[in-house]
Design a protein that fits this description.
heterodimer, A: mainly alpha, Ammonium transporter fold, 14 helices, B: alpha+beta, Alpha-Beta Plaits, 2 helices, elongated
Chain lengths: 430, 112
């Protein structure tokens, strides 16, 4: 670290604190509603809960040990010097102009949303106790070390030159790949793919997706750790990529399927946000247009073709959007990073072909740790408690079985059960 | 006495109701129903997964009328509910054994 100005900048601190609040908004209600609209109504509350509970659970984990594993000194993982936020105070973070506490609480929001993203792959069937145990272990054993590897000065991937501005690998590859492994370990929902699982509320999904977009300005532009030109660059790139991918997804879908869908537009926008995340502070706005188009192609194929071909039940397409979008973003950062935007990174456009290798290494490390960690953690959790709810509870709905509540109770307090007329839809096989 | 049940396109309810009133029908029962015939259902697509929805929304009108009125009523429904495409619906005419007006206890044609 360079010699630090030992002063806190009010402007930088204001932006970082506001960004922390924006990233919190991404998990609840953003992600909660985005996912909640996509499941059946009988599972709406349990899906909302999978996001909301992590705001509580991972925050506590972060204070107790998570932040220290991330930001403490050490080779493979941070030490315990910051456990319980010891020594994390109002003085500036070394080398920065923001209080150490502001940085720690900002990073907390990233640690919260990452395991919450995985929940979309195991939606409508995972037992709550197993989910809580899994996410707690996953945050501790996968997220905290991976973030340390890529963002901490002692991290081996940082030393190898892997670029990840705001968490393309740390957040999106890790959650997306873990989602794929988790849905394979848990198995498909009963009836999938013979039975249809249409979303119960696209309006909720649009609301949640739009809140994700809004919060993502804090996620990416906040990662500049100051109210700077770089923050403005990341902000603009974020917005442009989201818009571009949303538009490109609509066009692809319109040509391929005949109709532009609301769900396609919002899915595309999220895919664009994922892809620009690692690149946001390294590329030009015009590169963001290209990254956005690439994200639409890659993620559209993943969601529309790959999933059906391989037959895994990634219920809400976490792998297709975050795993593949994050991987594309990591590689795209190696292509489009330029010193004219940020002296810290130069890619193929600057004639530095070696950056692609560093990006591949970073992405591969993310894939490997996420896949192995998720598999092992689920196997251990499975010894303690069943991972899935009973078949009966799965069919009648998780809200009542797990939480004793219903999102839309009938007049007598009974859950709104399946209507034989409304739910008589069957999937079409091609 | 006859009971005339017709299943029609929801958006044509107003026209059919007015036409029936014009020919002298003084009461009716209307319900929102779902079903399919030759029109079949429609498909919905979510992220590339296509679903077929078999039952389409329709409106069912039930009227109880004297025999003399049946032809005019059926003609009025056919004229106003027809678009010429699959999905225009059907009319079912059946004999009605008795009718009771609950308020007065009148029976038969008196109660219509």
């Amino acid at each position: 670290m360079d010699a630090a100005p030992a002063i806190v900048s009010s402007g930088d601190t204001a932006w970082l604190l506001a960004s922390a609040a924006l990233v919190m908004l991404m998990t609840a209600p953003g992600l909660a509603l985005f996912y909640g609209g996509l499941v059946g109504q009988k599972n709406l509350l349990s899906t909302l809960m999978q996001s909301f509970v992590l705001v509580c659970l991972i925050t506590v984990q972060w204070v107790v040990i998570g932040y220290s594993l991330f930001w403490g000194a050490g080779g493979l993982v941070g030490g315990t010097e910051y456990a319980f936020f010891q020594g994390v105070g109002q003085d500036p973070l070394v080398g920065q102009t923001v209080p150490h506490l502001a940085f720690a609480v900002y990073q907390c929001m990233f640690a919260v949303i990452t395991p919450a993203l995985i929940s979309g792959a195991v939606a409508e069937r995972m037992r709550f106790s197993a989910y809580v145990l899994f996410t707690l272990l996953w945050a501790t054993l996968v997220y905290d070390p991976l973030a340390h590897w890529i963002w901490h000065a002692d991290g081996w991937l940082l030393k190898r030159g892997a670029l990840d501005f705001a968490g393309g690998t740390v957040v999106h590859i890790s959650s997306g790949v873990s989602a794929l492994v988790a849905c394979l370990v848990l198995g498909r929902r009963i009836g999938y793919p013979r039975q249809a699982f249409p979303p119960h509320s696209i309006p909720l999904t649009l609301l949640g997706g739009s809140l994700l977009w809004f919060g993502w300005f804090g996620f990416n532009a906040g990662s500049a750790l100051g109210a700077s030109g770089l923050a403005a660059q990341a902000f603009a790139n974020t917005h442009v990529a989201a818009a571009t991918t949303g538009l490109a997804w609509l066009l692809i879908e319109w040509v391929h399927r005949g109709k532009p869908t609301v769900l396609g537009a919002v899915t595309g926008a999220v895919a664009g946000l994922v892809a620009i995340t690692p690149a946001a502070g390294f590329v030009t706005v015009s590169s963001s247009l290209l990254i956005g188009v690439g994200a639409a192609v890659v993620c559209y194929l993943g969601v529309n073709v790959l999933k059906a071909r391989l037959g895994y039940d990634d219920s809400l397409d976490v792998f297709g959007v975050h795993g593949l979008g994050g991987t594309w973003g990591a590689l795209a950062t190696g292509i489009f990073a330029t010193k004219s935007v940020n002296p810290a990174g130069s890619g193929l456009v600057d004639g530095n072909s070696g950056q692609i290798v560093a990006q591949l290494l970073g992405a591969a490390a993310g894939w490997g740790l996420a896949a192995a960690g998720t598999y092992l953690i689920l196997k251990v959790v499975g010894l303690i408690t069943p991972l899935r709810v009973s078949a009966e509870d799965e069919v009648s709905g998780l809200d009542l079985a797990l939480h004793g509540e219903s999102a839309n109770p009938g007049s007598s307090g009974t859950p709104s059960v399946a209507s034989p007329v409304r739910d008589n839809v069957t999937p079409i096989r091609h | 006495m006859k009971k005339v049940e017709s299943v029609i396109r929801p958006h044509l309810l107003d026209s059919v109701k007015n036409a029936l009133q014009e020919v002298g029908v003084v009461g009716m029962t209307v319900s929102e129903v779902k079903g399919f015939g030759r029109q079949k259902g429609h498909t919905e697509t979510y992220r590339g997964s296509e679903y077929r929805v078999d039952f389409l929304p329709k409106v069912k009108i039930e009227i109880a009328i004297a025999n003399e009125l049946v032809q005019a009523a059926v003609d009025a429904i056919v004229k106003t509910a027809r678009t010429g495409k699959f999905g225009d619906g059907k009319i079912f005419v059946s004999s009605l054994e008795d009718v009771v007006r609950i308020r007065t206890g009148e029976r038969g044609e008196q109660a219509l």
